[in-house]
Design a protein that fits this description.
Bound molecules: pyridoxal-5'-phosphate
Number of strands: 13
Number of helices: 16
Largest sheet: 7 strands, mixed
Shape: globular
CATH class of the largest domain: Alpha Beta
Amino acid sequence: MSLPTTGLPREQVLATLQEYRAGDLAARGGRTFAYVYDAGRPDVDELAHEAYASFLDVNGLDPTVFPSLLRLENEVVGITARHLGGDDQTVGSFTSGGTESILLAVKAARDGARVDSPEIVLPVTAHAAFQKAAHYFGLTPVLVDVDPKTFRADVDAVRAAITERTVLLVASAASYAHGVVDPVEEIAALALERGIRCHVDGCIGGWLLPYFRRLGADVPAFDLSVPGVTSLSVDLHKYAYAAKGASVVLFKDQAMRRPSYYACADWTGYTMVNATVQSTKSGGPVAGAWSVLQAVGDEGYLELARQTLSATRRLVEGAGRIPGLRVLGEPEMALVALAADEPGLDVFAVCDEMAALGWYVQAQLSYRGLPASIHLTVTASSDALVDELLADLATCVQVARTSSGGADPAMLAAVAELDPEALPDNVLGTLLPLAGLEPGAGLPARMAPINALMEAMPPRLRERLLVEFLGMLFTPAREG
Ligand SMILES: Cc1ncc(COP(=O)(O)O)c(C=O)c1O
C-alpha cells in the first residue's frame, strides 16, 4: 500500500472501504454480543450518521469559537444529569468514551486530594480503565476481592483497604463482567465517613438501569442522589445507542470537577485549557449523541429497555437450563456471564463454536478465583433472536464437550511456571507461535488455544504477551 500519485475516484475509495469491512463482526443484526450496541432502529442509525458527519469539521478544542458545541454539550450533560439523580449543582464533561470519563474522574480525585502516594480502592470487577488511569497518573490501585457468589463488591474488604492515602472508592453499576450492581449506598457512605471521593462507574449500566427500574426490575440505588457519590460516568455510545465517541462524566459540583480540567500557560501558542484528555476533537460525537437522544426520546428508550430486559431474562433463564452451563450471579443489567458447570467443558471452545455459527460471544479469563466465562452484552436488537441463540448455545456446548481446545497440557503447565519479570522481550515473542500466532499469518481462526494459553499464565505474563501480540498486529503495511 502506498499513497496514490493521483487521487482515486470517490466510488473506488468507498468501495475499497466496504471491502475492508468484509472480515469484521456485524455491527448490526443482533448476533454480536460485545463491542457494539444495536437498537434495531435503522432510522436512528441514519440520523446519527448524518448528524455526526455534519459536525465532523468543527473543533471542540475551543468552545468560544464553536458555540454550537458548547450548547450541544451543555444540553447533553443536562439531560444525562437529570437521568441520573443530579441536582442544580451537578456539572459534567462530554468525553470520547468510558475510559476517558474514568481517567478524568481519577485525575480529579488525585488532584483534589493532594496526598503523597495516592491510592484507589478497586473491587477486582471494576473496569480495567481504573487501573489504566492509576498507571497513567501515578496512583496505586489497591485491588479487593468481591463476593464469590454474587460477584458484588465486598464492603468489608473495601473498608479494610482504605488508608490515609486513599483518594477514591469505586463502585460499578453495573460491572462489565457479571452485570451486577455493587452496594453503592454502602460504599458511598464509607467514602462520606472517611472524607474520600466515590466514583460510580455507570459507563455500561448508567443509561439503561433507570429504565429497567421503571419497568419494575429490582435495581438498587446507584446514582448521584446517593449520599457520598461524588462522580459518575455514563457512556452514551453504549445503551443510549449513540455513535462511538460519546460518554459523560458527571461531578456532584464544580468544586469536584475543577481538578479534572487542565490548563497550561507556560508555552508560546494559543490559550490552552482542556476539559478532557483530548484537545482537538471533532464535533461529530456530541452532535451524533445529541441527535440520537432527541430522536429516541424517553418513551423510545423505555421501549428499547423493555425489549432488552425481556431478551436478558429469557437468556438468563434459558442458558441456566443448558446442561454444562451456569449463569454467574444474578445480573441486574443486560450483561450475562456463563461459566462451565461440569469438569472439562472449555468455555473458550464454546465461544469458537458459536463464532462458527455466526454469533459473537466473548471469552472472559478466570481471575483470582473467579471462573472463566462467556460474556454476552444483550441489546434491544437481540430480542427476536434469543430462542435461536439458546438452541445454538446448547449445540455448541455439546460440540465443545468433545473438542480438546487444542492446547498442549504440557505447554500450559510450562507457561504457568514462567516468571514474567525474568523473561526478556525477545523470548516473549517466541511464545506467540505456541499459541498459533505467526507474524504475517493474519488473525487466528480459533481463539480457544490462545485463551487457554493466557488462562494458564499469571496476569503479568498475560499482559506482556498481549503487548507483544498487539505489536505484532500493528505492523505498518509495506510497499509490496
Ligand atoms: C463498566 C465499564 N466501564 C468502563 C468501560 C470502558 O468504556 P470504553 O470502552 O468506552 O472506554 C466499559 C466498557 O465496556 C464498561 O463496561
